[in-house]
Amino acid sequence: MAYTVFARKYRSQTFDDVVGQDPIAQTLKNAIKTERVAHAYLFTGTRGVGKTTMARILAKSLNCLSAKQPTAEPCCKCDSCVAVNLGDDIDVIEIDGASNRGIDNIRELRDNAVYRPARSRFKIYIIDEVHMLTTEAFNALLKILEEPPSHVKFIFATTEPNKVLPTIQSRCQRFDFRNISPSQIAEQLKFILDQEGIRYKDDLILPLAKMANGSMRDALSLLDRLVSTGTETLTVELLEEYLGCPNSEKVCELVSAIGDQNAAGTLAAAGELLNSGLSEVQIADALVEYMRDLMVVKTAGRTSDLLILTEQQKKRAEQLAEKFDIAGLVYSITALEKLRWSLKNSDTARPLLEAAVIRLAMSEHFLNIDQLLLQSPGAADKKKVTSSPNTASNTQNQRRMPVESTFHSSQIPDVESIKNNWQDILSVVRQRLGPGTAGLLACAQPVQFENGILSLEFGPSSAIQKNMCESNGRVEQIESVLREHWGTGLKVVLQVSERQAEAGDRPAQARTRSERQNEILNDPAVKTVLMGLDATITNIEDV
Question: Is the pTM of this model over 0.70?
C-alpha cells in the first residue's frame, strides 16, 4: 500500500479539527447554521495554515448528502464528502491558479458555471493561488462574481492578497488566516506521534514546532523527514544532524561569550557553529532568536507566555540575560537583522559574521553619544572647574576628605562634604553605572542638600547633558547608588542655574527661527556629536 505523508493523513476533516483558526471556523459554522453563506470567499495567509483545508471543509458542509440542508458538521462518509477529500468530486472543482491563469481558462469556467450541479446542492469552485491569475482573467471573473447563479459558490485562496485586484476583493468575504503558534503545533505533533506509536524525547517537540514558522504543513513535513531517518527514538540531536537546526548549547556559548565581552571566546564559539555545517545566515538567525528570548526575559520575566522554551531552557536564558541590558539586546537584534541581508549576497560571509559578533562583544569599547558629549567644550570647562582648582595637587588632596571616611560613611553628609568629594562620588558612579552616566553628571555641581534632597545644578552650556541625565531612568539609578553608600533615603533633583533659566526663557519668543537654528548649530555638544559621528544635520524642527 502506498505511503501517505502526515500532512495528508492527518488533514483536518471538520471545522472543529482545524488547528489555530478557531475564529474563522466558528464564523463559517455560524454562517451555515443561520443560512448566511456568501457566494464568494477569499482565504488569505501564509503557506500551510489551513486555507485549502478550510475550503474543502466548507465544500463538504454545503454539499454533505447525509443532511437535508447545509450542515456545520459534515459526515465525512457520504459519497460527496469522500470525493471532496480525494479532490475528484464532480461538483467541487479545484483549480490551480498558477497553471490555469489565462483569460481562456476563466471563460471556460464562466461558461460551465451556468449549468446546475450533477448531484449536490452547489457547484463550488476552489481556486488556489488566485493571485497568479492575469489581469484579464480577473476582469473576466467580475461579472459572475457580482451576480452569480444561486447554485454557484467561489472560494479563493492566496498567500499574496495584495496581488488580488481590489474589484475582486470587494466582491468576496475575506478571511485572514493567522500563523499557528508553536504551542499549538507542538500539541498536534505530540498527538500524531502518539497515534503512530513513535517514541520521542520531550525536548524535541518545541524546537521542531518553532522550525515550522507557523505552518502546520511544514511541521508535518519536517516530522516526516525525521521519521524517515529510521531512528527508534526521535531526539533533538536529529534536528541538528538532519534538519540543520543550530545546536542550542553552542548558541548559548556564543551568546554567553558576547555577554562576557570575550572577543576570543566569541570567535571560537562562532567557529564551532560554522564547523558544524551551519551557514552564516543560519547563525545570525539563531542569534536573533535567542537574543529575542533574552529580551523577553529581561522585560516580561521567565514566566511570560511569549517564551516558547522548556523550563530548563528558561532557567538558562534567565542566567544569560543577567549579562545584558535591554538597550544592548535591542541594538544586537537590529544589527544582526541588517547583517543577515549582507551575508546572503557576500563572498566573504564568514569575516562579516565574525566582525559583527566581535563588535557586539566589544560594544563597551566603542564611543557612544554620552561620551561624545563629554568631549564638548562646555563639559570640559565644567570638569576643569570641579577637578582642577588653582591650588597645588597636594593641598587639594589634603583639603578633600578621603572617600573611605566620607563617601562610604554611614553618617549623613552635608553639602560641603559632598562638594569636597564630588570627584570621588563621580568615580563610584562611573564604576557602578558606566562612563556615560558619570560623564553627564560631571557637568553638574551639588548646590544644596536639605531634608534628604540633593540639588545638582547644570551650567549654561550643559542643558543637553541635563536632559539626557533625566532620561532612561538615570536619576533613579544615581539615587540608588547614593542611598547604598550613605545608608539613608535620598532624592536627586536636577536644575539649571538661574542665569540659564533667565537667558533661555526670556528671548525664546523674540528670537527668529534662523537665530534659534544658529544657536543650535553652534552648541558645543551638537558640534561634538556631529564630528564624532561624521554626521550632517538635514532638518531642525521646533518642538
Answer: no
